Amino acid sequence: MHLPDGIVPLNQALIYWIITLIIMSLFFYKFSKDENKGKRIVSMAIFSVFTITVTSLSIPSPFGVPIHFFLIPLVAILLGPLSSNIVSFLSLLMQALLLNMGGITILGANFIVMGLILSFATFGFYRLFEDINKKFAIFASTLIGIMAATFGQIVILLISGAMNFDSLLATLLPFYLFISIIEGFSNVIIISAIERIKPEIMEINKI
Q: In this structure, what DSSP letter does residue 3 have?
């Protein structure tokens, strides 16, 4: 889902960067007030490294395009949307600088899609469905979060004029629906294992 440099006009990319900087300033300010920020920094550092590593792996898919998992839905469910946004920003920055994934000028737009939208959509729907069934909540929120991010990316591409609506629906929606289903099931397995092996992680105050 990484948009590359140049696909969005520079003036639009600058607007996304400004929005991102404002959002991240607010998030870091709120994070600085967290009483458990010491433990949370360790958790976010671990998940940032994990996210950078796993999302850099390419997995073959039946669509002919390699799959890159997001992991941000997992972080949002475990640590909360504020923490997952910070992890997302740090991961996107390192991926752009070290792995040539995405880019610097487009990083603001990528963060809005894979940080802001993905984190809050996942966490919001997880909380909505949690009382119904926890495993269903994990799967459904992951799927909805990724699809919400997909629509966010579609909107950015439409505004940029890079592609038309029909082409975007025909290419992006089936591909990311496929990924969201796989990642949804994976998150159910991972979180179920964490609850058995390291249940204290599930007890971290989510912010």
A: P
Write down the pTM of the prediction.
0.89
- The residue among 41, 12, 184, 32 whose CA lies nearest residue 112 is 12
Closest listed residue to residue 79, CA positions, set 191, 196, 193: 191
Q: Are 152 and 112 in contact (CB under 8 A)?
A: yes
Q: Taking the C-alpha atoms of 131, 135, 136 and 138 in order, what is their torsion angle to the nearest 10 degrees?
A: 90
Both tokens assigned to 191: 């979180």
Question: Domain-by-domain residue ranges, the chain?
Answer: 10-203
Closest CA to 9 of 121, 157, 181: 157
Nearest to 3 by CA among 105, 102, 150, 90: 102
Residue 74 to residues 43, 149, 189, 202, Cα–Cα distance (Å): 13, 15, 11, 12
Tell me the angle at which helices 10-32 and 37-55 cross, rounded to the nearest 10 degrees.
150
Q: With contact defined as beta carbons under 8 Å apart, do 77 and 187 qualify?
A: yes
Residues 6 or more apart whose CB falls under 8 angstroms from that of 207 comprise 30, 31, 34, 40, 79, 80, 81, 82, 83
10-203 — its CATH code? 1.10.1760.20
Read off the pLDDT of residues 109-164 as tens digits, 9 standing for 90 and up. Answer: 999 999 999 999 999 999 999 999 999 999 999 999 999 999 999 999 999 987 77
